[in-house]
Design goal:
By secondary structure, the chain is α/β, with parallel strands linked by helices. It has a single domain, classed as Alpha-Beta Barrel (TIM Barrel), CATH 3.20.20.70. It is built from twelve helices and eight strands. It has helices at residues 23-36, 55-69, 84-97, 114-125, 138-141, 147-153, 170-179, 193-198, 213-224, 228-242, 250-261, 277-292; strands at residues 6-9, 41-43, 75-79, 101-104, 132-136, 159-164, 184-187, 203-206. The protein has an eight-stranded parallel β-sheet with strand order 1-8-7-6-5-4-3-2. The protein is globular and about 50 Å long. The two termini are 31 Å apart. The model has no long low-confidence stretch (mean pLDDT 96). InterPro entries: Aldolase_TIM, DapA-like. Pyruvate binds at residue 205. Keywords: Lyase.
Length: 307
């Protein structure tokens, strides 16, 4: 059973220089996430270079991640397909491969109407027994899941959560005012992570967590414990790194950060290419500056036992 709360990394997919899955580095990163105390793993999202992955590769990643997590935290598979038929097939394959839940995007490439989007989501939800987090990101995908659409969608009992990425954090409050605990709201924008948690988001689907899992979880746990000033101190340090997530080259940026912390490589799958020139120097400067000033973290894992 998926507990829809906490920090859930949208992990990068690790590749070798020969463009095969790098399961050795994948294992190292997942183990670092688990050790830091994340609350779930999301595979095959935008950061996971989903559009370039073969279905067989997705299934390998699910099975490997299920093996590594040992049932301690849920493994969520992203579904981002061009057709309803394709999305249903992907959802069912993910369930068969052992995923504990799904993150579901609206149809890719085609800008569906509200009615088409609702019908699409319902068809996929009704095709699987897995619990589902909807992904609401009209900035990048040009389709918004409105409150009225969500009202229709919660007729599907397995639609449990939403990744809120409209960039309007007051939407966190609007969703909770209308649906209370029926829909669990996650923030999906790194640079609005702490703010969203403070106003009531129950979780954070994060990007820079891929390289800095402990810092991300520490912010979440401190906010949850109402130790806002301590969380803010870490968040201020983190912000230049978090801004690397809101870029078309977020995958390359975050993979460079993973190299710096020793839990990833720079290899991306074409058509993506590693950064070069002035932009590479700029991103490396952000990462190197952060590494030099990396904060000392409180004992956030035992925060509830501290009086």
């Amino acid at each position: 059973m998926v507990k829809w709360e906490g920090v859930m990394p949208a992990v990068t997919t690790k590749f070798t220089k020969e463009d095969a899955l790098d399961l050795v580095m994948f294992q190292k990163n997942i183990q670092a996430q688990i050790e830091a105390g994340v609350h779930g793993i999301i595979l095959g999202g935008t950061l996971g270079e989903a559009s370039t992955l073969e279905q067989e590769e997705k299934e390998i990643l699910i099975r490997k991640c299920v093996e590594l997590t040992e049932g301690k935290i849920p493994v969520i598979m992203n579904v981002a397909e061009q057709s309803t038929k394709g999305a249903i097939a992907a959802a069912q394959r993910a369930e068969k491969s052992g995923a504990d839940g799904l993150m579901l995007l609206p149809p890719m490439r085609y800008k569906s109407t509200d009615r088409e989007t609702v019908t699409y989501f319902k068809a996929v939800a009704n095709s699987t027994s897995l619990p589902i987090m909807l992904y609401n990101n009209p900035v990048d995908y040009k389709i918004e899941v409105t409150l009225d659409m969500l009202e229709e969608l919660i007729e599907c009992e397995n639609i449990k959560a939403i990744k809120e990425s409209t960039r309007d954090i007051t939407n966190v409050i609007r969703i909770q005012n209308r649906f209370a605990d029926r829909i669990k709201v996650f923030t999906g924008v790194d640079t609005l992570g702490m703010e969203s948690l403070v106003i009531g988001a129950v979780g954070w689907v994060a990007g820079l967590v891929c390289a800095f899992p402990a810092e991300t979880v520490a912010i979440y746990e401190l906010v949850k414990a109402n130790r806002i000033q301590e969380a803010l101190k870490i968040y201020r340090w983190f912000m230049p790194l978090l801004e690397l997530d809101i870029s078309p080259q977020l995958v390359q940026n975050i993979k460079l950060a993973e190299v710096a912390t020793g839990i990833g490589t720079e290899h991306v799958r074409a058509p993506r290419l590693p950064l070069e020139g002035a932009e590479r120097a700029r991103v490396l400067n952000v990462i190197e500056t952060a590494m030099r000033n990396r904060p000392e973290l409180p004992d956030y894992k035992n925060i509830n036992s501290i009086i």
